[in-house]
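Section 3.1 - Work completed
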Amino acid sequence: MLDRREELTPMLAQYVEVAERYDDAVVLFRVGDFYKAFCEAADEVARVCELTRIEREDSTGTYTACGIPVDNAPKYLKRLLDAEYRVAVADQVEDPEEASGLVERAVTQVLTPGTVVEEELLAEGSNTYVACVATADGGSDDSAAEAGGDGARDGPTYGVAHVDVSTGECAVTAGDAAAVDEELARIDPAELLGGPGVDPGVVDGADCMVTERDAGKFAPDAAGAVLDRYADPDRFDAAERVAAGALLSYAEYTQGDDGPLEYVRRVRRYDPRRSLRLDATALRGLELFENHVGSGRTLFDTLDETRSALGRRRLRAWLRRPLVDREAIEARHDAVAAFAERTLVREDVREALSAAYDLERLAGRVSRGRANARDLRSLHDTLAAVPAVREALAGVDALADVRADLDPLDDLRELIDAAVAEDPPQEITDGGVIRAGYDDELDEIRTTAREGREWIAELEERERERTGIDTLEVGYTQVHGYYIEVTNGQLDKVPDDYTRRQTLKNSERFYTPELKRREDEILGADERADALEYELFVDLREGVAVESDRIGALADAVARVDALAALATAAVERDYVRPEVGADVDEIRLKRSRHPVVEETAAEFVPNDAALPRGTVALITGPNMSGKSTYMRQVALAVVLAQAGSFVPADAARLPVVDRVFTRVGASDDIAGGESTFMREMRELTDVLHDATADSLVVLDEVGRGTSTTDGRAIARAAVEFLHDETGATTLFATHYHGLTDLADEYDRVVNRHFAAAERDGEVTFLHRVREGAASSSYGVEVAELAGVPDPVVARAHDLVAADREGGGGDGAESPPDPAGTDDGEAAGGDGQRTLAEVATNGHDRGDGERDGDKDAGPPAVRDDAVADLLADLRDLPLAETTPLEALNRLHDLQRRAAEAGDGDRDDTDDDATLDGGRP
């Protein structure tokens, strides 16, 4: 029907014209109190928003329509955005009462998942980014040919830019396809623009809405001209200029602006290598922001003690991009320590920040001309909280820099307070926005209106006395204005100066010349006051917008203070320790380390130590469910937390500065992408082996378990050898291929660690304690039994395991020790943990370091090798050179080792029991 343009009604013709200009979006057309969609768009909107479609019929035929109530629009807009629709909002840009004929409408905003600015559609405390990937020449034929291929590491250089349209934050960098993929994982955009010539694999791999733009927007000259409105284009590489310019052009388009977005104060160029790099796999594996099962606590949830949306976003940013500069790390630790050591200062600051609104988004709304009077009052209230924060920080040297940046903007705060009413209405056109005393002309107009109303308020009593009509009433309607109402029974008393205004069933309404004059004065004054208030407010808002740079600088300082105070609060409440990250630290050493998230939810958490000189490959064996994955993650999280500026969950910590953290933890597949679990595992391993350096931390869990035992064991062994010989990265490598543990005898930087377990009457108890040496069993059958596998299956599995051990066969993962070293099993007697046979013969661990078995059982088994080592150390102890404190520590160590030699267990004290560290 809409093809017959000449037959359309004026409003439908107007709708079609707008829809053709915004053919990539669903157009919502303001009609009275509704946003309307028509025809095919109505079908889509009704389906997504679960609205009723209406069949309309006029001279042009029958068509579909549906409407969204303006007052409840955010609810439905969110549904459309979540379904990855673009929505063009066409508002009435002309007062219907003043329009002659059809009301003029125009698109005032294009809503997309990555460019929303409405508070109701944004997640508080989180950024909403739209990103752009582009080539240096904007997708010429040469660029397209160069960018072809599979997105390998040695491909073309792309520019990648991102902007948060609600706050004005904008940044750009450049890199190859692999680097861009990593950056997009960190940025986590809600929407992505892919320029022409960009490898489709780079764009398609993003987990967000992908938007196409006209190729001309990516032309170097066009993109450079847009960027020039925000920054000097010569500061950027060619690909960065195209990406940033095309992105900002799109941001302007979505906001309905003809010029630059004034609140985008600067476009920051950054190098990802200047922060600890965490790719998508690491972010997912360490559960920094998203829990594996889609619910439950994350690291961010655990640390989030912020009091403002500004601080919450800053804390997220610090965790996404931890520092690599030692001085910057230590400066942040100094600031956190200052807050941790001063409880009153910390609590005063947090209480003051509780009154802070989101300055960045407020400044954005002000600059876009969309802030109302309540927004300005929120800005005022936030500025009013700053002096209390400054006062609390006075005299704290470690916080002097951030205190200096807390400009209270007294002039701006006083201006807003003088101009805006304390409790203004929501709409700036409703009047009552400007405070009395701010503008003389407005006060005079208001005085006229007020005096007129006072005269009318007294009119009823005066007229009753003058006319003798005791039922006379004075009232007002918006249609007829002010009136004097007299019932029919007393119409004979109406004086001659009354003029009839309206006849009702039981009464008549009148006015007098004086009442009419006063009415004109009041209504004229109200109209003039409302118009003047609007003008005054717009001028005020524009004046505040001029100060957007100062507001932005203050917002940055408030965000830093809030994030620092939050980290200090977490440290104090959760017993975290300040890590040592000095220039001489060349090892990961943690005493009684804990997993920051698991310890919050577990009924009881067993701390563990870690001692890993740089370049060490630690092979970690032990039972399923014993805590291997948790242990590796908590070591990696300690590194991430320390470099983000946080204290860490441990009794003491010495940590090097690493450049990247790699993880391959857990099993997952990509069915849609045609990748099996094993293929995805190998892709993740590929990234580690290609990109890890001697300054990296690598966490690998069960490499090679997705294929045959022979192939998997070979891949795992080769990976360990490569990490040791070629990469030199500090590595935690958990495996059930026990045969790999003999690598500790062949390579000087390979060490064995295992998680202890005890068995009593066929029941396994996991001690969750890491020990030196290799494990003797994974207790897989016992874990299957705990999981509820039927008894016949468990019994049969036990028989098969026993037969396998007796025959010396198997896959090498659970093989018995092979003294000759010819089998792929354990080295004889080298793991420091008893076999199941020894446990059955000599009693069972209770899990607390003591023995619990039959009364007739023999004495505990004593490990001859351990006793020999113990006696040798005791014999060689240099008493003359040992201080009393050192002697006590050595005696404690000898006692522990003696107990360990007798009962196969040890307490949870590290060899380096004297390691100490600062505590909040």
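Second construct:
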Amino acid sequence: MTAPRPSLSALEQHTPFAARHIGPGPGDRAKMLAQAGFGSLDELTAAAVPEAIRTDGPLRLPEARDEAAVLAELRSLAARNTVLHPMIGLGYHGTFTPPVIQRNVLENPAWYTAYTPYQPEISQGRLEALLTFQTVVADLTGLPTAGASLLDEATAAAEAMALSRRVAKGRGPVFLVDADCLPQTVAVVRTRAEPTGVEVRVADLSGGIPEDAAERGIFGVLLQYPGASGAVRDPRPVVERAHELGAVVTVAADLLALTLLTPPGELGADIAVGTSQRFGVPLGFGGPHAGYLSVRAAYARNLPGRLVGVSRDAAGRPAYRLALQTREQHIRREKATSNICTAQVLLAVIAAMYAVYHGPSGLAAIARRTHRYAALLAAGLREGGAEVVHGAWFDTLTVRVPARAAAVVAAAREAGINLRLTDADHVGIACDETTTRDRIAAVWRAFGVPGTDDLDALDVRTPDALPPALLREDAYLTHPVFHEHRSETAMLRYLRRLADRDYALDRGMIPLGSCTMKLNATAEMAAITWPEFAGLHPFAPADQAAGYLELIRELEQRLAEITGYDAVSLQPNAGSQGELAGLLAVRAYHRANGRPQRTVCLIPSSAHGTNAASAVMAGMRVVVVATGANGDVDAEDLRAKIAAHADELAVLMVTYPSTHGVFEEDIAGICAAVHEAGGQVYVDGANLNALVGLARPGRFGADVSHLNLHKTFCIPHGGGGPGVGPVAVRAHLAPYLPGHPLQPAAGPEGGGTGPVAAAPWGSAGILPISWAYLRLMGAEGLRTATQVAVLAANYVARRLEPHYPVLYTGPGGLVAHECVIDVRPLTRATGVTIEDVAKRLIDYGFHAPTMSFPVAGTLMIEPTESEDLAELDRFCDAMIAIRAEIDRVGAGEWPREDNPLVNAPHTAAQLTGEWTHPYSRREAVHPAGVAPESKYWPPVRRIDGAYGDRNLVCSCPPVADYAAD
């Protein structure tokens, strides 16, 4: 019998995107549910998620649409943005991303789906790229120790302030800031200073340090070089005087300018900060961009954030790793002086590869051309009667036009150019890599000056405007990496070679607990490099960003609906900064209500380390609450701590589901107890992937959360950044969300608290990713994704439980979206450590789960909803095979000091050498279940971390080091 012909309506229905995002199909889900002991996803949800917190009814979100329709919507939003030529400056500049870098790094999942390089043996490509970034920064700033990037320039300056306070000989309360610093930097520094008792003094330092400030006591000074106004001044007199006073000097410097100007280190600076945005990273309406921070060698061990160092592997070969990990918040917790726990890796890689692509001569040529355009622009303005305020500059001019500034800016806008309206009498103009002769002429016309048709003749008669005493004379970027890749062929192969040395989601599963390494769909990523989103300056007039602002508004509303809160700020550009913003809102709320004594922050002992660090930065005192044997917050200890600090209690910070991967049943009661004592409840949103569509923190008792768009909402980790960490609050905290001095619309009415990021909407350039994810999934798709994430974790737990104890479970013996397995009994019995298991997983073709968090000697596994059953089974099979290998060690078949686990990972190079091990080459590199044709080969053997910390090398070592090896 012939099957009935499907109707046109049926044929027009596309496969819903959720079916592609969620790995296990209906048949596989049935198998997984049977393994877990349930008949349906709803039955599992009813058993796992406490009834008291479950969401009533579906989320009120727009109906899901397919990829083509969502991309068309994004095109429509993009078309509502007006991208004019950016000559606003203020730390953001037009730049050309070399297409070979755009296609092969920014748009390449081998780079953007990688995780933070905690497993360095399979992160050698991006670690080498980050070491190159550090070399660029160290060479150009003249300071030998540079980190692997910070969140943006303003955050880097705030971190420099904290570092200065820690190490300065002068112990006064004042951090002195030059008035010519970028206004957004000054604002972020003020935000970060006030809760910690630092007094920020902004003064014109062109005439030196004011004596009244010196008498008050200065621990640090911040200078801008060149200044926000464009002025290039010699900072040496201020530096010398600051040092006499025992203060630490930070110089915020433009990297491109430093190819021509004397570096800050040579001028006496102790710290240099800034942004690498103009090294090929799109404007993106403010981010993400890689900030930088470099220091004198004496301060290396005080450096905040990430630092890549050179160590050696088990064969004695040079190898890269993250160095000096004692700075981590997990170790220092409330004693940490920074809550920065990540970097802007993908953007730092782009900036580094931009320097590799151009080399020192290419960068200097771009800088010289930029400066020449500024010099000729100034010459034409002066010849036409306009007053250029400063006599020395690099790329930025301040032009005085009494009472005409607004008219000039408007005329330039009509010509397709954005200038900066400084005040009623002054206009700022910044040249950059994208400036052309036509745009110089258009600016002259906007000022109403004749200019010249013969720019070459003007060039002949116009001198440079860089001070001769500040011209750079030393060589920089001398390492061969900056000279070997001039052709596109060479550059392409170099990028491929680096990518091949890494492990990312495009190779296989990354089952990291608490980090949610899920699918970052290509359709979600597509829009971020569209010029209408990528090319917009963050301080462009708001009416030029209508599409962006609509996308931002819709994303805020949808995140509020999902979480049950009333207001959302997208400004924080990392989860740590979302934490800080949320705690600052709580602090401001208590103070506004006449309760400034409420400064105690209760934090469970199992919490993520940034919680405690953020609390201290928000001016709070951390009191630790015990965690019970089952992983739950110890309710008795919590109530005792609440009673002991009832009058001082500001907030409880708690992660839900718990850091141990469990749905705690008493969360609503915990929230009620804190509220009864007058405190607020902060629910860390790191584990929101277990709640979306099932429960809403803002409705089960929480007052504030930060979210991780780079976890739950599909922005990729990018090898350790970018991230977005929005803060979501109930209505009573909404007036205290972050504001921004240059864009009032970015904050609440009344201005809110100060900004926590340089740009008004933080890393706006990647918000289209999460917007697209929500639009593609819809309410039902999001709910199903959460249910499958919980199912996958319980499936893995059930499969592994006979082989490794599952440390924590909740109601019915179930876990949430991740499970913690305990290796400690095996370590005691056999000597095989958690690190041995993690490194052996590399031989099986996997990135290890989270090691030793929240409990030392354990693995936290989060499979996510995106991995299909075949990949889940491949992982479980590998873990079971590793357990069998551990048993062979325990039985004495393999010695404790020489077996496949302690020697893991194994490289291809080992196979060609002498083999003296008691196991075979095949057992080493092709264990059970590993197909030879798809084998991932780690580029190095196990790395000696202690050696790298003792012998710190954080810039590209001489090639001779490798040749000798």
